[in-house]
Amino acid sequence: MYSDKLIGTICNMSWLSHSGVISDLLKQGDEWEWLPTSRDSIDPFCCQFARSPKESDVYKATLKSLRRLGESIPNLVDGPNDYTNAFKGAALYTFKMAARELFNKTPRKWVELASIYESGKWPLGITQSGRIIVL
Q1: Which of 6, 50, 97, 125 could crosslink 32 through cysteines, CB 3.0-4.6 Å?
Q2: For residues 58 and 6, is the Cβ–Cβ distance under 8 A?
Q3: How far apart are CA 135 and CA 130, in angstroms?
Q4: Under a CB-based contact definition with an 8 Å cutoff, are residues 100 and 51 in contact?
Q5: CA–CA separation, 90 vs 71, rounded Å?
Q6: pLDDT bracket for residue 85 (50, 70, 90)
């Protein structure tokens, strides 16, 4: 049941509808680390959850939804650097991990991050103190 609701959310997502411009964020000079942007990245929150049997369905729905955005997103370009692929990879990772949290009935950080995507923003980093950096 949780996966159907999550997939419905993903399919109706307005990606980056309320986000800023990445060049403005990068100029702020805050020290932070990127959240995972590839599927094989290590979970920075150190959560070890069993894989969800619907995880691949959630991943495929996210991938399909992200394809609507095209190859490059203007507000994710900073000079010669295009962060579009990083954004897409981060979204895929986040929703995969949110599916795991929900399957294991322990909604934590990844479900929280998924809700930030749902609000039209990108949770792209984390500070040493644990504050999430949002575009």
Answers
A1: 125
A2: yes
A3: 16
A4: yes
A5: 15
A6: very high
What six digits make up the tokens of 24?
């403005």
Whole-angstrom Cα distance, residue 101 to residue 1? 13
DSSP-derived pairing of the beta strands 77-78 and 123-126: unpaired
pLDDT for residue 127 is more than 60: yes
In which band, very low, low, confident or very high, does the pLDDT at 26 lie, cut at 50, 70 and 90? confident
**pLDDT for residue 46:** 74
Residue 115 class from Cβ within 10 Å (0-12 exposed, 13-18 middle, 19+ buried)? middle
pLDDT-based confidence at residue 106 (cuts at 50, 70, 90):
confident
DSSP symbols for the chain = -HHHHHHHHHHT--TTTT---HHHHHHT----EEPP-STT---TT----PPPTTHHHHHHHHHHHHHTT-S--GGGEETTEE-HHHHHHHHHHHHHHHHHHHHTT---HHHHHHHHHHTT--EEEE-TT-PEEE-
Quick check: 102 and 12 in contact, CB under 8 A?
no
pLDDT at 15: 96
